[in-house]
Design goal:
The complex is a heterodimer of chains A (159) and B (139). Chain A is built from 4 helices and 4 strands. Chain A is an alpha+beta fold. In chain A, strands 1-2-4-3 form a 4-stranded antiparallel β-sheet, with helices on one face. The longest helix of chain A is centred in the first third of the chain and has 25 residues. Classes of the chains: A alpha+beta (159), B alpha+beta (139). At the A-B interface, α2 of A face α2 of B.
Chain lengths: 159, 139
């Protein structure tokens, strides 16, 4: 368990540095895009590997549930806390203790910067869904850190 | 020993097709192309004979000279293996073969220098598929 915690801390620091790097190298408006692109490729490969020996996942809802349970488990060692849908292709995944924000203080000062820390995860979700064959747009809202709501809008209406 | 191993993307574009050099590759390409329809039919059929959650589709359709087996991953990548009729694959062997091809594909996708959908030039993938084609029995 200690080994795992060390790895987690290493990745948290790396993630933080990625945000800082993109901010200085590409400017503050490009950070979200760059992090999302990175996350996309990571999500794509992760899903390819993870679904190798799983049973076939058929429905769109099942795919989103897979994201909430298994993908979240792989990334954060916990499942997402809540999943809502309006049954017309929009899903909202809620995580009450989003890992990258648990160590950030909850004052107003850091509220905007919080968005930069969710971008990578949005990219991972986008890449994962794209590999399942469900292109979608992914956005995140942070009303009250560390609670994060990730909204998925499927681009084609679900069959 | 497989006569042909083909990997198709989710849009049914051929990603990689390896054929035995002694055989007519055009004919094999054509067979792979026709098997796409059968795969789609099997995926969509409501009353699937196999367990609908299984990734392995079994023998796709009968042909005088060849047996054609199919496999679809959760990420809609289709793998088609063609065997000559004189050398039928047992169910367990076929599953193992597909599992190994799938494993080689996963390694290919996880390679950061490979961008998904582009032509395959990765040596490890090419050589592992070639060795699977040559293997007389799947270890």
């Amino acid at each position: 368990k200690q080994w795992y915690q060390r790895r987690v801390r290493v990745f948290d620091s790396l993630h933080h540095q990625m945000v800082l790097y993109f901010e200085t190298a590409h400017g503050p408006d490009q950070v979200v895009q760059c992090m999302e692109k990175l996350g996309y490729r990571v999500g794509f490969s992760l899903i390819e590997k993870a679904t190798k020996d799983e049973a076939r996942v058929k429905e769109d809802v099942d795919i989103v549930k897979y994201i909430c349970k298994d993908l979240w488990n792989m990334l954060f060692r916990k499942q997402a806390d809540n999943l809502k849908t309006n049954h017309t292709g929009t899903f909202v995944i809620q995580d009450n203790r989003f890992r990258f924000l648990t160590r950030v203080s909850q004052s107003e000062q850091y509220k905007q910067r919080g968005e930069l820390y969710v971008a990578f995860t949005c990219g991972v979700v986008k890449g994962a869904l794209a590999n399942f064959g469900l292109p979608c747009s992914v956005t995140a809202e942070i009303d009250m850190s560390p609670t994060v709501k990730v909204t998925l809008t499927l681009q084609q209406p679900p069959i | 020993m497989a006569v042909c191993i083909a990997v198709l993307t989710k849009d049914n574009c051929p990603l990689y097709i390896a054929c035995d050099p002694n055989e007519d590759s055009l004919k094999l390409h054509f067979l792979v192309h026709t098997s796409i329809d059968v795969i789609e039919e099997k995926l969509n059929s409501a009353t699937a004979a196999n367990d609908p959650r299984d990734l392995y589709l079994g023998q796709l359709y009968p042909n005088e000279d060849y047996r054609i087996y199919g496999y679809v991953t959760n990420t809609k990548i289709k793998i088609v293996v063609i065997e000559s009729i004189s050398n039928p694959l047992k169910d367990g062997d076929a599953r193992q073969l597909f599992s190994k091809v799938h494993g080689a594909y996963i390694k290919l996708v996880c390679n950061p220098f490979y961008s998904p959908g582009s032509p395959v030039t990765s040596q490890p993938f090419l050589s592992s598929v070639a060795s699977l084609m040559r293997a007389k029995t799947i270890a």
